[in-house]
Amino acid sequence: MNGNLLKIFEKIVNFVLSVMLSFIMLGIAIGVGRLFLGLLHLLTQGHPTTQYLHLVGDVLTLFVLIELSRSLVHFFTVHRLRMTYIVDATIVFVLRDVMIGLFEQTLPVNEIFALSLLILVLGALRIGSVLVFQREKHMTDSVPR
User: Fold this and answer.
1) What pLDDT is recorded for position 122?
2) How far are the Cα atoms of 5, 39, 77 from residue 25, in angstroms, in the given order?
3) What Rg value do the Cα atoms of the chain yield, rounded?
4) Which residues span the domain enclosing 115?
5) Which of 35, 47, 80, 114 sits a CA distance of 20 to 30 A from 53?
6) Considering only CA atoms, which of 81, 82, 107 is closest in space to residue 94?
7) What integer pLDDT is reported at residue 21 of this predicted model?
8) What is the mean pLDDT of each run of 10 residues along the chain (145 residues)?
9) What angle do CA 131, 120, 118 make, to 5 degrees?
10) Whole-angstrom Cα distance, residue 52 to residue 38?
């Protein structure tokens, strides 16, 4: 009975994740289309500064979506979430906000320090997760079969 419930659970999880991945891929496709339209709008306008900000934000948002889709694809193949993909997406998302805030010159100094500290912690978390992954990989590779 537990085996059947586990199989049903795995099928439901795979279905939900495949729907999520489909929406993320659709979002990436729409984002790329908007990126090209924004580029066209940037070239036709006389004052490209404000449009440039939206273009940079769209590119960085696409990077976040790509990192999230990588983590879902990795989960489908290995059935584990890699911390590095999630942390990478979070770092890109925070850097996106920092870059936009600095470009618009609307980011207060205390928020710059707070976000810098957050990026430092996320970087340490990423380094730690890579080291743990390498250690686990080394341990599984050294075990005789």
Assistant:
1) 93
2) 30, 21, 17
3) 20
4) 2-142
5) 114
6) 107
7) 87
8) 82 88 89 83 70 77 83 80 82 85 85 92 91 79 66
9) 120
10) 8
Rounded to two decimals, the pTM is 0.70
SS3 92: helix
Token pair, residue 84, equals: 């590095």
Q: Which two tokens stand for residue 131?
A: 């080291």
Please say whether the dihedral angle defined by the alpha carbons of residues 36, 38, 41 and 47, taken in this order, is positive or negative: negative
For the chain, what is the domain count?
A: 1
Cα(105)–Cα(36) distance, rounded to whole angstroms? Answer: 26
Cα distances from 11 to residues 7, 33, 77, in angstroms, run 6, 33, 14
Count of H helices and E strands in the chain?
A: 4, 0
Q: What is the per-residue pLDDT for 83?
A: 80
What distance in Å separates the CA atoms of residue 134 and residue 86, rounded to the nearest whole number?
17
Note whether 84 and 116 are within 8 A (CB). no
